[in-house]
Write a structure and sequence with these properties.
By secondary structure, the chain is an alpha/beta fold. The protein has 3 domains: 202 residues, Rossmann fold; 101 residues, Rossmann fold; 122 residues, CBS-domain (Roll). A 6-stranded mixed beta sheet has the order 1-2-10-7-8-9, with helices on both faces. Strands 5-4-3-6 form a 4-stranded parallel beta sheet, sandwiched between helices. The chain is elongated, with a radius of gyration of 28 Å. It binds pyridoxal-5'-phosphate (PLP).
Length: 454
């Protein structure tokens, strides 16, 4: 346990965590460097300390000075932590796609936040790169942290992140998988690790829409297009990226990144951002193709708490057309449906037809399962109960066991919505089970409403 004199001493020396359930058991062991456990909850705390201290050493940052930066949020947070301790002002310029939580966080730390459009080119005077430069030039006593071109960024990872990974893994590393924003992390770590062992293969996950993969392949700068994952991929070539130290770049979709980020929360308890999802998506593939005695190391750059209104929100994902049937579980669908309705409305076999009709009437539904304890024994339709009652009203006081029809099909609640479609072509509803016990019910109507995006 560490004892620190100020919060800056708690930056770095993050733990290395074995990824258990998400990794393919037949492939290489998968590890994650938990950078969201830094005090500002991202890998950027490391560079923030170094950049500020290097400016102090050079005499460019003096008491009462201001630190300006173009940041998608995490570097801002890191700098805000450092500048809070060291009493500097901060002004951060952010692209408008950045989540509201990130803007609020920086303001909470006492920073001034300026928002610029994402949709303009990097050379446009309105771009967040141009605006940050202008503010730094025009503000007396200000420095631009300049994470894209400031060599202190990469140097931080050569001096801290790389050696920590090497020591934690006791040199047993076969591949390193990261992403590229400024390029500082991947360049610094790769430089250090390859210096120790040139056979370590370095992979980068890059969003579709970023120009970096194409740049590595052809040396040409193409035009990027927008994507939703934050903090990674570029429409410029950052000075901190040495693309020769990255062996392979693989494009990952927003959907795969967000899906993996959500899986990491649900299966591993790691609530991380979308870039961690991109990295883990690629790392799982890389590890799958390797031997069980090999090790793949990844980075978890930031916390998922910054994206609660983004990819952790079902509504947001659905709005972006990324909540697909293949990936949403029946449990999730049930949670999304009418909150007034119990998870499962049923009667026991000893209930009378009158009682069953009353239950259906109360919840305004026309069919219900009959459950004998946890056993799925049968089903009742209001129309057939009413038809029998028309013939003989005494029927209403008979137990339903004698008249129930074949039970509804059942599926484990972890099955996807897509897996239930075949059953729902034949049947009106499906009982959801957990450990073979009935825990919920979804109908054709629920699935149609889900796909309508309502
Ligand atoms: C969420 C997130 N992930 C990954 C990165 C990439 O790290 P680097 O800039 O060191 O390439 C960043 C950088 O902005 C980031 O904000």
């Amino acid at each position: 346990m560490r004892k620190a004199n100020n919060i800056l001493e708690l930056v770095g020396e993050t733990p290395m965590l074995r990824i258990g359930k998400l990794a393919d058991p037949g492939g290489a062991a998968l590890w994650a460097k938990m950078e969201y456990l830094n005090p500002g909850h991202s890998v950027k705390d490391r560079i923030a300390v170094r950049i500020v201290e290097d400016y102090e050493k050079e005499g460019l940052l003096k008491p009462g000075g201001t630190v300006v930066e173009a940041t998608s949020g995490n570097t801002g947070m890191g700098l805000a932590v450092v500048c809070a301790v060291k009493d500097y002002h901060t002004i951060f310029v952010m692209p408008d796609k950045v989540s509201d939580e990130k803007r609020r966080l920086l303001r909470a730390m006492g920073a001034e936040v300026v928002i610029c459009p994402t949709s303009v080119g990097p050379d446009d005077p309105a771009s967040y790169y141009s605006v940050s430069r202008r503010i730094a030039e025009e503000t007396p006593g200000a420095v631009l942290a300049d994470q894209y071109f400031n060599p202190s960024n990469t140097q931080t990872h050569i001096d801290t992140t790389g050696p920590e990974i090497w020591e934690q893994m006791e040199g047993q590393i076969d591949a390193f998988v990261a992403s590229m924003g400024t390029g500082g992390t991947i360049t610094g770590v790769s430089k250090y690790l390859k210096g120790k062992n040139p056979n370590i293969k370095v992979w980068a996950a890059d969003p579709f829409g970023s120009i970096l993969k194409e740049f590595k392949q052809t040396g040409e700068m193409t035009l990027g297009y927008p994507y939703l994952v934050e903090g990674i991929g570029e429409d410029i070539i950052p000075g901190n990226l040495d693309i020769n130290l990255v062996d392979e770049i693989v494009n990952v979709t927003d959907e795969d990144s967000f899906y993996m980020s959500r899986q990491m929360a649900r299966k591993e308890g790691i609530l991380a951002g979308g870039s961690a999802g991109s990295i883990m998506h690629l790392a799982i593939e890389v590890a799958k193709g390797m031997r069980p005695d090999q090790n793949v190391v990844t980075i978890i750059p930031d916390t998922g708490e910054r994206y609660l209104s983004k990819h952790f929100s079902d509504e947001w994902l659905r709005e972006k057309g990324m909540l697909s049937r293949e990936r949403v579980s029946l449990r999730r669908l049930r949670q999304m449906k009418d909150k007034e309705l119990p998870a499962i409305v049923s009667v026991g076999p000893e209930a009378t037809a009158r009682e069953a009709l009353e239950v259906m009437n109360k919840f305004n539904i026309s069919q219900i399962p009959v459950l004998t304890g946890d056993e799925n024994s049968g089903r009742l339709h209001d129309s057939s109960l009413l038809a029998s009652a028309l013939k003989d009203s005494a029927f209403l006081d008979e137990p339903v066991a004698a008249v129930m029809e074949a039970p509804f099909p059942s599926l484990d609640e972890s099955a996807s919505v897509a897996q239930s479609v075949q059953l729902l072509l034949r049947d009106q509803g499906v009982i959801l089970t957990k450990d073979d016990r009935p825990v919920g019910f979804v109908t054709r109507h629920d699935i149609i409403t889900f796909s309508d995006g309502k």
